[in-house]
Amino acid sequence: MASFTHLPVANATSSSLLNHRPCCVQRCARRRAGAAIGSLWRPFQTPCQLTAGYSKRGSVRKHPATTCQAVAAPPSTVSRPQNGTGGHTSTSTDHPIQNKEQQAGPKILIAGAGIGGLVLAVGLLKRGFDVKIFEKNITAIRGEGKYRGPIQVQSNALAALEAIDKEMADKILAQGCITGDRINGLVDGETGKWYVKFDTFHPAVDRGLPVTRVISRVVLQQLLAETAIEMAGKDVILNDQNVIDYQHEVDDMGRRRVWAVMKSGDRWEGDILVGADGIHSKASVRQKLVGKGDPTYSQYTCYTGIADFTPPDIDTVGYRVFLGNGRYFVSSDVGGGKMQWYGFHKEPQGGKDKENERKQRLLNIFGDWTDMVTDLISSGYNNK
What is the domain extent for residue 332? Predict the structure, then answer.
């Protein structure tokens, strides 16, 4: 059965585009968050100039960006939590930690074990910080529950991952479907003729960057989590720990501390609390730090799907963006004989479709476009 959900997208979004299951279609309200929000990837972004080794291994994106806001207290010695087990940091020979003298340094509390929170955790652990990650539900990391689609990891993001931990980045590269070594660009929605083609290969290689890939969001989170656990032990990620509040207090030594307050009533003390709990969090650190900042509707609603479909030009084209008036459509190879697609339509906010009407509505919107679009809609939608 097709799934249906609204996915608000922040001003700065993480890019995504995958592969892991049969076709699923979602309708999502694409929004921009009012508050300033950090991100790791952005769709079709020009690679920044980072230095990393070129790699083209493997054969294998854009949706809610993980928010990342920090609440800091002056650095001090590591403190233990109340009503919880004490934290610890252990090392793995496969992930050597830099600046080992800092291992008793500031304690960093991270709310959220999404992509942003996990990448931050690995980077901090590599530099000897004491880290604790709080996650209300780790089923996403386990690959359980609602299907979350693929994510496009661009050259600059891959280089950043290599700079953080080379072994971890190599595993991610090996799991990815390379799209950056083929033709990508903008085309006319009705005719399918190219407007412009992007060269995403040579700019990356010339700067020593890995080539853009698409990877399963679940696989990516699993690899990040495994790396953190290898470095700091299984208790580095605490499940069923929903951060609903934080407090500033002064301890017995006169130091200003930050306390993460859990829904269960537990409190964890640290030097810095980072909110990586996303714009969907009902009690996010960001909301308390900078205000509620409701997302602003972008005027476009997005349908997404994955099709068991192999275009005849799969060996030469990675992705296309089909353009039209008040509508556009994106298709991308995500590996494993599957194509990911997005259909954007300008319309008022709050629309709802019945389960068995979405395919026909999509064909009504895009039915006069090239068969490269209509074939994907027909192949990537279960209209039961």
Answer: 300-379
